[in-house]
């Protein structure tokens, strides 16, 4: 496909803004599911069966990050302002994404109570699995908020440790998942690495001071975790 340079540039911005819109949309649906008391996975699976919508990018969580979605949504909005054109939908996508991190903090505080002096284990730091990319990773904002509330952070990521240390130098880094959770008052999943899906949850429970999980990527099933004896919160579940 051959286009004018302006159309090619706008295509890049529009494609990523559209995908980011799907992420922000399902996050809003998840937040409503929390209020209603139903499971966002059921809703996402059902609407994803409509081929006009599709199942991709309908996974709720703490918001999008990385090198493309934040930058390109802001670029789209900036170009629209430059040409005196409205970008209300994209502006809302950005606002919803910024708000999602704050809502995740609300979940954690409701689960843990006062964070002062509490040790919080964080599993996953990169903005998505299979990368060490920390650019605008949701974990950064969440951890900084936890620190501001007086929490102590012990974190583990399979590959992003070195990059994470550049932006989060004031936290402890563990060598594996089980070291991270030892003595922790709560466990927060932020990045959905595949290896986190097969943890020995009984061992995790026994290592923790209090068995509480904030699963911001819905890696585990709520019923299973409660059977193991965890206090568990997910996103829209």
Please name the defining characteristics of this protein.
237 residues, Rossmann fold, 9 helices, 2 domains, N-(1-d-carboxylethyl)-l-norvaline Dehydrogenase, domain 2, alpha/beta, single chain, globular
The top level CATH class name of the largest domain: Alpha Beta
How many E-type strands? 6
Q: Tell me about the largest β-sheet.
A: 6 strands, parallel
Supply the number of helical segments.
9
Q: Helix proportion of residues, in percent?
A: 40-55%
- According to CATH, the homologous superfamily of the largest domain is NAD(P)-binding Rossmann-like Domain
Shape: globular
Q: Helix and strand string, N-terminal first? A: HHHHEHEHEHEHEHE
Report mean pLDDT, rounded to a whole number: 97
Largest sheet, spatial ordering of strands:
3-2-1-4-5-6
Distance between the termini: 42 Å
What would you note in describing this structure?
The protein has 237 residues and is an alpha/beta fold. It contains nine helices and six strands. The protein folds into two domains: 5-99, N-(1-d-carboxylethyl)-l-norvaline Dehydrogenase, domain 2; 105-233, Rossmann fold, CATH 3.40.50.720. It has helices at residues 5-36, 40-48, 69-82, 88-112, 138-148, 161-167, 177-181, 201-207, 222-227; strands at residues 119-123, 152-156, 172-173, 186-189, 212-215, 231-233. Helix 1 (5-36) crosses helix 3, helix 1 runs parallel beside helix 4 (88-112) and helix 3 (69-82) runs antiparallel to helix 4 (88-112).
């Amino acid at each position: 496909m051959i286009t004018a340079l302006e159309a090619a540039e706008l295509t890049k911005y529009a494609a990523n803004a559209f995908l980011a819109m799907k992420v922000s949309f399902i996050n809003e649906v998840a937040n409503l599911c929390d209020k209603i008391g139903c499971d966002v996975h059921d809703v996402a699976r059902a609407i994803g069966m409509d081929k006009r919508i599709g199942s991709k990018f309908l996974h709720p969580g703490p918001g999008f990050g990385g090198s493309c979605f934040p930058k390109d949504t802001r670029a789209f909005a900036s170009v629209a302002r430059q040409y005196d054109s409205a970008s209300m939908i994209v502006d809302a996508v950005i606002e919803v994404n910024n708000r999602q991190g704050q809502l995740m903090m609300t979940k954690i505080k409701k689960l843990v109570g006062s964070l002062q002096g509490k040790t919080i284990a964080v599993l996953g730091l990169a903005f998505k699995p299979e990368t060490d990319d920390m650019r605008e990773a949701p974990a950064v904002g969440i951890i900084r908020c936890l620190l501001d509330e007086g929490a102590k952070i012990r974190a583990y990521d399979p590959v992003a440790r070195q990059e994470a240390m550049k932006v989060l130098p004031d936290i402890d880094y563990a060598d594996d998942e089980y070291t991270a959770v030892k003595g922790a008052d709560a466990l927060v999943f932020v990045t959905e690495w595949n290896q986190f899906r097969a943890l020995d949850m009984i061992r995790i429970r026994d290592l923790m001071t209090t068995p509480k999980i904030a699963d911001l990527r819905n890696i585990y099933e709520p019923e299973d975790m409660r059977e193991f004896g965890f206090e568990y919160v997910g996103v829209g579940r």
